[in-house]
Amino acid sequence: MALDILIFETKSMERKILEKKNIEGYNFIFYEQALNDEFIDTISDKILEDTIILSIEKNSFITKNILDKFKNLRVISVRTTNYDNISLNECCEKNIAVVNTVHDDGQSAAQYTIGLIISLVRKIKTAASVTRFTEDFNEDYIGTDLSKMTLGLVGTDFVGMKVCEYAKAFGLNIIASDSKPKQQLKDKYGVNYMPLDELAKNSDIISVHLNYTPENFHVFDEEFFLHCKDNFYFVSIAQAELIEFDALDKYLSNGKIKGLALDIVPCEDSCKSCKQLSEHIMTRLECFEHTNYIEKFRQYPNVIITPRIASMTNEYIDTTLNQNIINIKEALNGEKMCRIV
């Protein structure tokens, strides 16, 4: 008998890949929506009774209410690295395994990061608005040779390491800040590790590759930006919670930040459930404030905003889904897990 897997926040590409794989023993039930306290009420009692596997992404909030509705749930598989949208204590009490997905190469996201850096430094967004070379062609379209610049990497795990490799090919001088310096980066690329405030003072380009934790909430704040060079570039494909947007807005507006690139969607599902969650965890709706700032930033010619697509290649999606299925099988079979929270 095939086991049902409820897959939430399904992208069309994910659905096509999974349907093509036709994995024996599993029946996929696809939902484009995120799973939350509102949407759970639209799911039939039979599905709630029969389901033992959920597959979610970052916009599904797994609360006690949701866990109580699923009578036989055994596995929640997250198709991302982060899992702070799940009530882990409740899962432990109900003996529900939570597994996340991590890729060790970071290749797709690193390639995208380099693309953002080149676009900013060579002013591609601004130059693309010019249809032909004219006499009034001016310094607004003139960039800088990357080999004359210093790149500061904040975070040098999988993605940061790949960015380092690609950046070196362009001749960038590379410095880094990380709680766990990588000896191989020191040896192979001559990366010099230093405290974050020192990196800020010495970087022409700062590229952020940190996973968000409560400990590094707003690590890029007023004090950090004060330490930065004048006319530096700031690039982040990490989560919005790392950045204090008031400070970012201030230093972008006054020109200290010469170019900004964010691969970010701070509030993808502005709805009643967001407000309910905010009240539940007793915090302000900062994601809504971020959304307002993002709309403001989009108006700047030296800003690039993209909707959290740094990793979104066909190859990455396929690998993620394969790992997702492996995680589920291992959890159900009681095997030694490659990923478990």
Task: Based on the model shown, name its key terms.
single chain, five-stranded parallel beta sheet, Rossmann fold, alpha/beta, 341 residues, seven-stranded parallel beta sheet
What can you see in these coordinates?
- By secondary structure, this protein is of the alpha/beta class.
- The chain folds into two domains: 3-103 and 314-333, NAD(P)-binding Rossmann-like Domain (Rossmann fold), CATH 3.40.50; 107-306, NAD(P)-binding Rossmann-like Domain (Rossmann fold), CATH 3.40.50.720.
- 38% of the residues lie in helices and 16% in strands.
- Strand 4 (75-78), helix 4 and strand 5 form a beta-alpha-beta unit.
- The protein is elongated.
- The two termini are 28 Å apart.
- Residues 269-273 have low confidence and may be disordered.
Entry summary:
This protein is α/β, with parallel strands linked by helices and 341 residues long. Helices cover 38% and strands 16% of the residues. It has two domains: 3-103 and 314-333, NAD(P)-binding Rossmann-like Domain (Rossmann fold, 3-Layer(aba) Sandwich); 107-306, Rossmann fold, CATH 3.40.50.720.
The number of helical segments is 14
Taking Cα atoms only, what radius of gyration do you get, to the nearest Å? Answer: 22 Å
Helix content: 25-40%
Q: How many structural domains are formed by the residues?
A: 2
Order of helices and strands: EHEHEHEHEHHEHEHEHEHEHEHHEH
Low-confidence stretches: 269-273
Q: What is the fourth-level CATH superfamily of the largest domain?
A: NAD(P)-binding Rossmann-like Domain
Q: Beta fraction of the residues?
A: 15-25%
Strands of the widest sheet, in order across it, are: 8-7-6-9-10-11-12
The 3D shape can be described as elongated
State the major sheet: 7 strands, parallel
Average pLDDT metric: 88
Q: Could you give the count of β-strands?
A: 12
Query: Which structural class should the secondary elements be placed in?
Result: alpha/beta
Task: Output the CATH topology of the largest domain.
Answer: Rossmann fold
